[in-house]
């Protein structure tokens, strides 16, 4: 069974630009969560989608948004990029809220 | 979600058993204890989950005392490839939001 895939793996953007990251969950998984990892703040929860609905949201500004499609694939968007948005963005999927989460390899975003 | 406290780092040698203890004094009745492993530039990987007493799988064992205010992840006979950050998480098994602490950086040397 294929794991969680994230594209692109690496991305370099300029301040003020916007970016869209993509996540394909494990087949059959309907829950997709997004996390941001930085050296200073560690792993922080962004939001979670289940059956195309945002079910939980972390403490991030409105510049961070996401969505989930009917095939459970998910995208997250960051608008008006800031230098502090440079991070590893991780996507995780699970088959249900009571089950372990499987993480993808992440997208390394660098904002210059 | 209960707050967890782990050692920042630990050192070990190949072949040794490593025990990483996590404190979670405010654990709730419905909370489970879950451990994840993370290698550099990779996503965390689920290791083991438990509620009480002892849980064992092919990778590790998890020991949870009766008061459940702490837990110990035991890695038998570690190898160099076990060098990673280990996170202890506490939360309701139904939770879909994982709250990660700082984790424990385990360094295994030859």
Describe this entry's structure for a reader:
The complex is a heterodimer of chains A (112) and B (110). In chain A, 0% of the residues lie in helices and 54% in strands. By secondary structure, chain A is mainly β. In chain A, strand 4 and strand 5 form a beta hairpin. Chain A is globular and about 35 Å long. Chain A starts with a strand and ends with a strand. The relative contact order of chain A is 0.33. The mean pLDDT of chain A is 93. Helices cover 0% and strands 49% of the residues of chain B. Chain B is built from no helices and nine strands. In chain B, a hairpin with a 4-residue loop joins strand 5 and strand 6. The termini of chain B are far apart.
List keywords for this structure.
heterodimer, A: 112 residues, mainly beta, 7-stranded mixed beta sheet, 0% helix, B: 110 residues, 5-stranded mixed beta sheet
